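Record pair follows.
FIRST:
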Amino acid sequence: MKRKRRTGGSRTLWWLFWLAVGLLQAWVHYREQPVVATAPPAAEERFVTLVDARLVEDAGNDGDSFKIAHEGGAQVLRLYFVDCPEKRLYPLVKNRLKDQAAYFGGLSIEQTERLGMEAKVFTEKLLHEKRFTIQTRWERVYDSARSYALVFFDDGEELSEKLVKAGLCRIHTKGTWMPDGRREYDFESHLRALEHEARAAHRGAWGRPRPVE
C-alpha cells in the first residue's frame, strides 16, 4: 500500500510550527539576560526614578559625584546645585581648589582637601545607611558620561540640602526645577538660607580656623 505524499499545505504548516518554536526559544533566552546599560539614555524633559538604586564603591566617588547601580545598569551621577571640595590636589583641579578655599572664607588648600574627604564620607554614609530615591532627567554634565541627578531621603530632604546644612559644599553648579514643581530660583534661595544657618552655627567649613597670614 502506497503512503500518501505530503501536500504543499501540510509542509508549510510544519515549517511554520518549527519557526514558531525557534522564535519562542529566542524570546525566552533574551528575556532571561541581565540588562546592562552602557550609557545613560538621552536627556528627558521629565524626571525619572531609578529603580533599586544603590551606591557602588568606586575610586572616583566624592561628596557630590558617585557611581550608582540600578535596575537599568550603572552610571556616575552628579548632584544639581552644589559643589563639594576636591578630595585631593592634582594639576587639573588646582584652580578649582583655590576657588573652593576662597568661597569658604580663605581656607588653606590642605583644609579644603580634608573638607572634600569629609564630604565624601558624609555622602557615602548616608547612601549606605539611609533609604533614598534618585531622580534624573539624564542631563549630561558638560560632555562627560556623568548625568545630573537629585537624591531624596525618607525625611523629605534632598542630598544637596544635607550637604549645605553640614557646611560641606558650596552652592555652585547647574540647578534645575524640582520634581515637586518648585522653581530652580526658589530651591536655590532655600539652599542659601540653609547655608546662612550653617555659617552662623560654624558647621563644617564655616567652623574651620583661618590660616594666619
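SECOND:
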Amino acid sequence: MVALSINLNKIALIRNSREGNYPNVISHAQLCIDEGVEGITVHPRPDQRHIRPIDVRQLNQLVSPLSTVEFNIEGNPFAPSLGDYPGFIALVKESQPEQCTLVPDNNDQLTSDHGFDLNITGEQLMPIIQDLKAQGIRVALFMDPDPAQIQLAAQVGADRVELYTGPYAAAWGTDNLDRLFQRHLAAAELATSLGMGVNAGHDLNLDNLAKFASIPSLLEVSIGHAFTVDSLAMGMTNALRAYKTLLS
C-alpha cells in the first residue's frame, strides 16, 4: 500500500488569515493520525505564509513518539534565517524528522513548481544531504521525471526522490496524460534501480491519484491542497477515508 502523508500548509494558511489559533493545526494533525495516515508533512517557508516554526516544533512533539506515523519537513535547503525563522536546515536539525524533502523553491513562488537541476546545485547539496543522513534523517529530493536528473540524485546521495506531479495532474483528461504518466513510471523505475525510494506529490487528487498510485515502486504520496479542498466539500474525516480507501 502507498503511504499517505497529509500536508497541513493550507490549514495553517487559513489560520494565518485571522488573529489567534483557529483552525488549530495540531488538532487537525491529530484528526489525520486518528484516521490512520502514515505521515504528516509541512513546508515551512521563511516568510511564514502558512506553517510557522512553532507549528513544526509542536507537530514534532505530536508525531515523534508514534511508531506508525512519519514526520516529513520539506523546503528549500538554502533558505536562511529571517526574524524568528531559524533557517530551514537549522529547523530540520532541531526537529529531527524521519524524512526531510529538499525542494528548490523561493519566496517569489506561489508554490513549488519544478524539481532540482542538479547540474547547478548538486555540489552544494551533497554536504547538506550527507549531514542530514548522518543524523538519521532520510533525505528526499524534489525532482522532475528526467532520467539524467534522477541519475544525478543518486550520485549526490539522496535516499529518495519525490517526483513533481504537477504537469501530470494538469494533463488529466487530455491526450498528453499517458505520455506524462509513462515518463513518471520510467523515472520511478530508474530511481528504484539506482537504490532510491520513490515519493510523489503536487496536485494529486481523488480523480488522478489512483492511476499514479499504480506505479509499482511508489512508496508515498504527499497531498495537501486537494485534500483541503475535498475536506471543504466532504468533511475532513470523509476526505481522509476516501484517500485512504483509494490508496489501499
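COMMENT: Strands lie at 3-7, 39-42, 70-75, 99-102, 138-143, 160-164, 197-201, 218-223.
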